Amino acid sequence: MKVLVTGAAGFIGSALSHRLLARGDQVVGLDNLNDYYDVSLKEARLARLKDHTGFSFRRLALEDRAHLEALFKAEQPQRVVNMAAQAGVRYSLENPHAYVDSNLVGFVNLLECCRASQVEHLVYASSSSVYGANTTMPFSVHDNVDHPLSLYAATKKANELMAHTYSHLYGLPTTGLRFFTVYGPWGRPDMALFKFTKAILQGSPIDVFNYGNHRRDFTYIDDIVEGMLRTLDRVAQPDPQWTGDAPDSASSRAPYRLYNIGSNRPVELLRYIEVLEHCLGRTAEKNLLPMQPGDVPDTYADVDALVADVGYRPQTTVEEGVARFVDWYRDFYKV
Fold first, then answer.
1. Can you tell me the mean pLDDT for 2-30?
2. How many CB atoms lie within 10 A of CB 196?
3. Per the residue annotation, which of 37, 91, 124, 152 is the catalytic one?
4. DSSP for 110-128?
5. How many whole angstroms separate alpha carbon 295 and alpha carbon 89?
6. What would the 3-class secondary structure string for 269-294 be?
7. What local confidence, expressed as pLDDT, does residue 299 receive?
8. What pTM did the predictor assign?
9. Are strands 55-59 and 26-31 parallel, antiparallel or unpaired?
């Protein structure tokens, strides 16, 4: 297939692109290479992809409607995976307009292009952040998610609603994936594992919010990508059991699906740090702080629907995954 991957210079987008290319698909990568975090890391991810003959790249923002439309007309992708978004819960408190531009304006531009080009399947990134004030664990895609705690979460919930509209009106098959904390080699510098590793190796203290009482459904990148591939290959279909009398938020009469994609094994943050300390051979100096605005204390993914529909089976333990990240970090930064 020819697959358009937006956010192809990002952590998950680049990893997915590698897997698509390895199995023989043609990948058109799109990214605006913004400076939300170190651009040289994004460029290094791209450099690895450009070694593949089946990969082409366009530097482009989803908000650039005219150039996005031209790209779709020129490339005619059969399927689209949207990983391009302004990420980060805490940054959404500082720069809300970046989230509106990329995650709302950019997403409707993408939906319009998919509709006009009759794309076979759009798979897009949602987030576990949509569960917001929910406290029933594990989080289920069948739960109500009307109480987001950050603008980032609100834009991801909005993406799900916008996608459903296009599935209903135009028959565009869409699948939303609610990602739980993804980690691994080539990860994002704004994420805890990256920040902790850098600080510990420099001998600096690490900021541990909620006094370390967080639990997170940490999910290794290879497990995430395997689930994404299986989802992309299974085009969303209408749910024949769906009824407006008792509407299920995870499916529809339209070709629309929502899934959690996580490990289904929440880990206490202090245990996560302990594993990292073991891998680094150093003890962290911890700066224990209260919970940040917009954060949630726990995440825990119910992945039963993804297991049932595509055979998703995350395999990587935190001990294995953190060790692989540390090996990559030491090699990449020559530490």
1. 98
2. 22
3. 152
4. HHHHHHHTT-SEEEEEEEG
5. 7
6. HHHHHHHHHHHHCCCCCEEECCCCCC
7. 87
8. 0.95
9. parallel
- 152 is known as an active-site residue: yes
Per-residue model confidence (pLDDT) at position 284: 94
Nearest CA among 225, 213, 189, 204 for reference residue 329 = 189
CA 267 to CA 270: how far, in whole Å?
8
| Helix, strand and coil percent figures for the chain, each rounded to 5 | 45, 15, 40
Q: Please name the residues in contact with 241: beta carbons below 8 A apart, sequence gap of 6 or more.
A: none
Cβ atoms of residues 11 and 221 within 8 Å: yes
Give the CA dihedral 227, 231, 234, 238, nearest 10 degrees: 130
CA dihedral 128→129→131→133, nearest 10 degrees, is 150
What count of residues does the chain have? Answer: 335
Rounded Cα distance between 190 and 180, Å, is 15
| Structure tokens belonging to residue 216 | 């997170």
One DSSP character per residue, 220-237 reads EHHHHHHHHHHHHHS---
| Cα separation, 165 vs 121, whole angstroms | 15
Alpha-carbon span 8 to 16, nearest angstrom: 8
